[in-house]
Amino acid sequence: MITGVLFAQGNHRAVQPFQLVSRARNRGWKKGTIRTLASLDLETKPNYWLTVCAQDQAVVPLHSCVQVYIEVQNENDNVPLTEDAVYYPSVPESSPPNVKVLQLAAEDRDIDPLQQISYRIISGNPEGNFAINSTSGLITTTARKLDRENQPEHILEVLVMDNGEPQLSSTTRVVVQVEDVNDHAPEFDQKMYKVQIPANAKIDQPLFQNDYAGSGYEPPELELTEPMLSDPDVGLDDAATWESFPEKNFNDLQVIFRVTAQKSPQEGSTLS
């Protein structure tokens, strides 16, 4: 009778995740089969050296051993992943094409010299404001201008894929914040404001009708309108400088206001 035993190279302990199964065959031969007991992972342990020994049952038993080298073959069982699940880059509005927004980099733990990772934007880019290099993962701007006043934030979903069989993939979210640029001139809510001023109005005094109370003088109807000003650029609604340029003729007094935003580059608008 012959028995078999399985050892790891260099010691005499039973080897996991393998077992040796012996079966009797004709003419005294026995068949020994090495089987797995658990899943193998190439990325954890790529190979095994085993020693298989056979021993008879004589009074003085004899044995012989053989070494078995097992190489674990690769299977595409690891999903390619970026370092972070969500990224928050920013880019100025009205940027020219090919401005860098974000460099994505993914890792796949599968050991395969032919492995390649590719990238693709699958949502959040309906107007094509952004492009991604399918090989390098570099996200850049395109010829489509970004406008913070129209859309201050773009949420992109990027698909990261390997070329294994079966093909595995993951998604990464990129939340692009559009930085403000002073690209809008301040605007009045009306094209023209009409103000009626008494002929004898005091210089540098507020023009109110009750300034003339008790004087016996009845001024003409006084219509005072405060020009309303707005600027869609961030933080510029209350940061404008008013300048007046009076131009006098024989019939009336025309005042032209110039409003300049307090941000570089400056943009201005005029009102008469």
TrEMBL record:
<dbReference type="InterPro" id="IPR015919">
    <property type="entry name" value="Cadherin-like_sf"/>
</dbReference>
<keyword id="KW-0472">Membrane</keyword>
<dbReference type="GO" id="GO:0005509">
    <property type="term" value="F:calcium ion binding"/>
</dbReference>
<keyword id="KW-0732">Signal</keyword>
<dbReference type="InterPro" id="IPR002126">
    <property type="entry name" value="Cadherin-like_dom"/>
</dbReference>
<dbReference type="InterPro" id="IPR020894">
    <property type="entry name" value="Cadherin_CS"/>
</dbReference>
<feature type="domain" description="Cadherin">
    <location>
        <begin position="83"/>
        <end position="188"/>
    </location>
</feature>
<keyword id="KW-0130">Cell adhesion</keyword>
<keyword id="KW-0677">Repeat</keyword>
<dbReference type="GO" id="GO:0005886">
    <property type="term" value="C:plasma membrane"/>
</dbReference>
<protein>
    <recommendedName>
        <fullName>Cadherin domain-containing protein</fullName>
    </recommendedName>
</protein>
<feature type="domain" description="Cadherin">
    <location>
        <begin position="18"/>
        <end position="82"/>
    </location>
</feature>
<keyword id="KW-0245">EGF-like domain</keyword>
<keyword id="KW-0325">Glycoprotein</keyword>
<dbReference type="GO" id="GO:0007156">
    <property type="term" value="P:homophilic cell adhesion via plasma membrane adhesion molecules"/>
</dbReference>
<keyword id="KW-0106">Calcium</keyword>
<keyword id="KW-0812">Transmembrane</keyword>
<keyword id="KW-1133">Transmembrane helix</keyword>
<keyword id="KW-1015">Disulfide bond</keyword>
<dbReference type="Pfam" id="PF00028">
    <property type="entry name" value="Cadherin"/>
</dbReference>
